[in-house]
Design a protein that fits this description.
By secondary structure, the chain is mainly alpha-helical. It is built from 5 helices and no strands.
């Protein structure tokens, strides 16, 4: 009986500490902008609040795209800069079309439209950051 109790206690504590460590890893892996958006959601759970959070998130992710793009541009040689500039222009054209399509698809679901729009900026920022990480 004592051995069974010890084994159960060991399993329980192992699972507990594993889940705690995984939660800490997830929290550390979350980008600060995502953390700000989540905090904003917690402080403003209404539809209007969520919209304001998404607008804030979109603006911050857009600024992050611009920031990382400029750093990446400075790390590339002339040929790489030309390619990145072409890619960025193509991405901006694609995003414009994505925004237009999303407006049609989610016209009656404004919060989903805002979330989708923010996510597009987030993905580009993360993509540029991964390119930058390769060079550093």
């Amino acid at each position: 009986m004592r051995k069974l109790f010890f084994n159960l206690f060991f399993i329980f504590t192992s699972v507990f500490f594993y889940t705690q460590s995984m939660a800490q890893i997830d929290a550390m892996a979350q980008h600060p902008i995502d953390a700000e958006i989540s905090e904003c959601y917690n402080n403003n759970p209404s539809k209007l609040g969520i919209m304001e959070c998404e607008i804030m998130g979109y603006q911050k992710w857009k600024a992050e795209v611009d920031r990382v793009y400029q750093i990446l541009l400075g790390k590339l040689d002339e040929e790489g800069q030309l390619i990145l500039k072409e890619q960025q222009l193509a991405w901006e054209a694609l995003i414009k079309l994505e925004f237009e399509l999303n407006e049609k698809l989610y016209a009656n679901q404004i919060s989903l439209l805002a979330t989708t729009t923010t996510d597009l900026m987030r993905k580009r920022a993360m993509e540029l950051q991964s390119h930058l990480d390769v060079l550093q």
